[in-house]
Amino acid sequence: MAWIYLVAAGVFEIVWAYTMKQSEGFSKLWPSVITIVTMIASFALLSLAMRTLPLGTAYTIWTGIGAIGAFIVGITVLGEAVTMMRIAAALLIVSGLTMMKLSAVS
């Protein structure tokens, strides 16, 4: 169950990162509200996952899901640049996440 909480927390992290961008420095009400609500949900789910998962594993996976998810949203929704260097960096993050998951005890 901890891994489900962790993945859900990562998805909420992607949402809050995107809506924070849309809030334009918290100057727009609804993107700001969505950012705060999804931040709280993300942290709450992360804390549930950390009941059984090691800190280093949970936090690394959580931030990695958010980083890769924000990278994908940036490219697909916001039209950010797709370069070989950015793709290589993302692949390194994914390989690190995979190694972290495979090394996890719980």
Question: How would you describe this protein?
Answer:
With 106 residues, the chain is mainly α. The protein has one domain (2-103). It is built from four helices and no strands. Helix 1 packs across helix 3 (55-76) and helix 3 packs antiparallel against helix 4. The chain is flat.
How large, in whole angstroms, is the Cα Rg? 15 Å
Total count of domains: 1
What is the strand content?
A: under 5%
> Count of helices?
4
List keywords for this structure.
EmrE-like, flat, 4 helices, 106 residues, mainly alpha, cell membrane
List the helices and strands and how they pair.
Blueprint: H1 2-22, H2 29-49, H3 55-76, H4 84-103
Helix pairs in contact: 1-2, 1-3, 3-4
Quick recap of the structure?
With 106 residues, the protein is mostly helical.
